[in-house]
Design brief:
Rossmann fold; alpha/beta; 3 domains; 6-stranded parallel β-sheet; 13 strands; 434 Repressor (Amino-terminal Domain); 7-stranded mixed β-sheet
Length: 357
């Protein structure tokens, strides 16, 4: 019994040497029996596993194994919001599904990190044992996160965000796709158009877009999609949401639609969840979608509870995540990893129509 176990009452953890002694084999043979990577007979392996079971030995310490390999076996994903909020967003779920597929050859696990900004947190970008990290560029803290990882020397891939510096980026045509949606509204005859955007900067300021908010922008996705709307409607009215959620879309929609004298005939939302909230705000006011208000979204997801076939820009979220995972695999093998550019397609549903005469 160790001095520590004598004072604390803790039961000493059995070691691989204990198992080897019980099985009557060398420590190296016992190790090979557990790893399955060496020439150990089935009978010897069964004897080692039986000894381990008798002693309550669960296997080699994964921390020691990580040190020997020089890898943690963990790929981090930095989320812009609380984990619960992320799991309410189908885009995040699809991206994570694709990412898990992409890193499958590594046999690594995914660690979801929320950037609280507290360096003393038990697990953070500053302290977590990570082999590589995937950054999602629609986070207002994207640039700060990237600086932290560069300081630690951890390989990273960005899903949007325009990081530069040789960091592989998985992109979509945010500006061009939004312009396509805006051109659809123009062809229908809309001239009074507003847009509900994703957050622009770390404070997640909500409300009408001000020059100060726009000047402080750190979210490339929000900026690019706004530019796409302005390519067609230079004077588009802009309402900034605090997150991509139905609730935020509802509040933004209420603000845009409250005054009948200034009410737009169409809204371009920077996500499908925001679009669903805008539609809910319209229905609260007794407006008909699309006869009284046309709404365009962005993502191409199924929104629970939405009784419309949303007109939206469909992006390949699963493919984006898979491409990010594949880039991680290349980087950790020592190979060069290139970025991948994807395009979105316009799906015309039943939420857009010509404005009332």
């Amino acid at each position: 019994m160790t001095p520590e176990s004598a004072t604390t009452g803790a039961v000493p953890r059995p070691t691989l040497a204990d198992v080897a002694a019980r099985a009557g084999v060398s420590a190296s043979t016992a190790s090979l029996a557990f790893s399955g990577s060496g020439p150990v007979s089935d009978a010897t392996k069964e004897r080692v596993l039986a000894a381990a079971s008798e002693l309550g030995y669960a296997g080699p310490d994964p921390r020691a194994r990580s040190l020997r390999r020089g890898r943690s076996g963990i790929v981090g994903v930095v989320l812009e919001e609380r984990v619960r909020a992320a799991f309410l967003d189908p885009v995040k779920i699809q991206t994570l599904d694709g990412l898990a597929e992409g890193i499958a050859p590594l046999g690594a696990g995914l660690l979801l990190l929320t950037d609280s900004g507290d360096p003393a947190a038990p697990v953070s970008l500053d302290t977590a044992p990570l082999d590589a990290v995937v950054l999602i560029g629609c986070s207002p803290k994207f640039w700060k996160q990237m600086e932290t990882l560069q300081r630690r020397g951890i390989p990273m891939v960005a899903i949007e965000g325009a990081p530069g510096g040789g960091i592989p980026e998985i992109t979509i045509d945010n500006r061009e796709a939004t312009r396509l949606g805006a051109e659809h509204l123009r062809e229908l005859g809309h001239t009074e158009v507003a847009t509900v955007t994703l957050p622009f900067e770390p404070t997640r300021a909500r409300g009408p877009l001000t020059p100060e908010i726009e000047a402080a922008a750190t979210v490339d996705t929000s900026v690019a999609r706004l530019r796409g709307a302005r390519d067609v409607y230079p004077g588009v009215r802009v309402q900034v949401a605090g997150a991509s959620s139905i609730e935020e879309g509802l509040e933004s929609g209420r603000a845009l639609l409250a005054d009948a004298a200034t009410r737009p005939t169409a809204v371009i939302a920077q996500s499908d969840l925001l679009a669903a909230g805008v539609i809910q705000a319209a229905e609260e006011l007794g407006l008909d979608v699309p006869r009284d208000l046309s709404v365009v979204g962005f993502d191409g997801i199924r929104v629970d509870g939405l009784q419309h076939d949303l007109t939206t820009l469909v992006q390949p979220s699963v493919a984006k995540g898979r491409a990010a995972g594949e880039a991680i695999v290349h980087m950790l093998s020592g190979a060069d990893a290139a970025g991948t550019a994807f395009t979105s397609t316009l799906h015309i549903g039943d939420t857009t129509a010509p404005p009332r005469a």
